[in-house]
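Deliverable D4.2, example record:
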Amino acid sequence: MKKGFKKATVCFLTLSACIIINSNKNIPLTIAQEVQTEKEQIVPTLLDGIWENYSRYIVFNTGYTTEDNKTIPQIVLRIFYQWYDDRTAESLDYAKEHSRDKNNTTDPVSSPTVMKVSFVPLTDELLTQEQGEAVVQSDGDKLYAEKDSSGAWDMQVTYSGPTLGGIKVYHIPVAVIGNKLYLHFAIKKEDSDSVPVSSLLEGNIMESGNLLAGYWQDYGSSNGILVSPSFQNDELLCYYITDNAVYKLRYWETDMEYDGETKATFTDGNDVFSVPRHIRAAERTFTCTLGRRTKINNVEKLSELDKEYVLNSVFVQKEAKDANGNNVKYTVRTSTICAFGEPYLTLHNGSESLEEIIASDNSRKKPSPQPLFPPHGVLDFDWSIIEDPPSSWNRRMLDLGK
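Output generated by the structure prediction step:
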């Protein structure tokens, strides 16, 4: 299909206590989420533009879609130490409209690799007040990003050609904070209701305590947005964080029927903590206990997170009544996405199109290599060694001229 989006209905999710049900399997796709509003789009707004890292350029919003309303992204690999841009994955229609370089690794005559991608929201797509409207929850709360826009999605990817191990759809969780895209992150429910309502809150901005505190669910991490199927986790690592400690909770894949109601518990001295016993990620069920037990064993306790992280910053505009029945309007600052490590992609900050970037990169000429030996000047060489070799000419060459 040529350019011009077909409009597909994508549900945005807010972090409330509801479950989305897959009508085919009658099991939840994600936990702790509630369908809030519907917007017509195929590629999330925050994924527009050209994304890049040291090894590739990626365009999610190419304008090419399939009949079932999936986008066909474009991936250009920066091979040979970034001296050549290879158009490896793209739409067949795009390949027909833009002639392909005969040096591309994929066949320039037949076809490139074709990837079909859909995006399932894991959190709300939040913009700043300057960028757009706030997301309105069912209770009337309005959510928007404080400084950097943010959102998280489960990329569901189908590759052209034969599949490995019978897997047809691969899941790549992605999160965006500002102009950076991460592959390893965790998500927490929006907790603005933890701030007690008081008339003193009128017009103020409050924080919901420690922004890291709470239960953070892992949705898995991929080894990249690749042209070939990527790695899929068999285990997830979630976190329960308090003001004084960080608890690492291991979840592993199970074939048990999903139970979204039952809680699992662990203790630390006299403190008892409760977390979901089952979680859903990549359309699979994971558990943190053996069998039907509800007690978690072998919880690892840390004094702080053991990896670098970046939090998004969410403003929740609230209206409530205080103890005297007065209307109070206030804002709560909280976080819903915790991204770990370095970003996988950054948004290209130029105004060039991908075609212009490729043409510019491939027009470069690699400079001549440095000479094997440094310039010597006048050679200090005695021809007599050749014209009249010494009687000991058969000695080791290293001894000559000494």
